[in-house]
Specification:
Elements lengths: L2 H6 L44 H8 L4 H10 L12 H12 L7
The structure holds iron/sulfur cluster (SF4).
The site of iron/sulfur cluster (SF4) has 16 residues, from α2 and α3.
Length: 105
Amino acid sequence: MTARQRHSASPIWAAPDLALSTDVDAEPHWTDLALCAETDPELFFPEKGQSTLAAKRTCMACDVRAECLQYALENNERFGIWGGKSERQRRKLREELAAGQEVAA
Ligand code: SF4
């Protein structure tokens, strides 16, 4: 998967069902408040062996972290950092949720 393909799979960079609203009276969509939109998108799709720390730090300061993580879990997003969680962490969360376990965000 190329960097461009990974970016197009993210919430902030052009996922079709998350297009920004043009209704100026509407409540902002969570993607409108995504802190990662103000950063280098490459941070959120580190190559194997690269650190995820910078992306996760950004997520920890993001006001829509819960919404982002929920979206990623519901849509089975497989690549990148979403809601401060790596692919492996999200897989573990999905397994815990499927087993009916209480999970920490
Ligand atoms: S939680 Fe992280 S990936 Fe999700 S919108 Fe916020 S900064 Fe972006």
